[in-house]
Design brief:
Blueprint lengths: L2 E4 H6 L3 H13 L2 H5 L7 E7 L2 E9 L1 E2 L5 E3 L3 E9 L1 E8 L16 E3 L5 E6 L2 E5 L3 E8 L5 E10 L1
Parallel strand pairs: 4-11
Antiparallel strand pairs: 1-10, 2-3, 3-12, 5-8, 6-10, 6-12, 7-9, 7-11
């Protein structure tokens, strides 16, 4: 099941074994310096450790009607909000409806579900999303927001 909260909360819940390098990066790296090199609507990738990369991105959220429910098989996501805030839709893989069109190259598939819940992540909060956790990130329910976010891809 997905885990949501501050980095300290995620560490306290036993995530350091798998995600410790991500948390170290968040605490020790100059994140503003990386974001200074990211233009709105663009991305920047940084290798954090063997099997872990960080994708810095800046964008405006989209309304939940336009959000796409996605999943992964080879990587877990840790999605960290550096500035702004967004809703993230999520549900268990077992609640997926419709086609799952998997791209092995990009390790992503898209599907639908009538059983999606939404959690709001604000500055300094993150979501840990395992392959069983379908998610619809970058979402606004009422008002669009400008967001700076890091998505860590952690090879399983």
């Amino acid at each position: 099941m997905a885990i949501f909260g501050t980095v300290a909360t995620l560490e306290a819940q036993g995530c350091p074994k798998k995600y410790g390098k991500v948390f170290e990066f968040l605490k020790n790296e100059d994140l503003d310096k990386h974001f200074a090199e990211v233009a709105p609507g663009k991305k920047k990738e940084v290798i954090v450790a063997d099997g872990i990369k960080a994708i810095f991105q800046e964008y405006d959220t989209k309304f939940h009607q336009d959000a796409r429910l996605e999943g992964h098989r080879k990587y877990a996501d840790v999605q960290y909000i550096h500035e702004g805030g967004e809703y993230i839709g999520y549900c268990d893989l077992s609640k997926a409806d419709g086609d799952i069109d998997y791209s092995d190259e990009k390790d992503i598939f898209f599907c639908k579900s009538n059983q999606m819940s939404f959690v709001y992540l604000s500055k300094g909060e993150a979501a840990v999303l395992e392959p069983c956790d379908l998610h619809a990130p970058c979402t606004a329910l009422a008002e669009k927001k400008h967001v700076k976010k890091i998505v860590f891809k952690v090879k399983l």
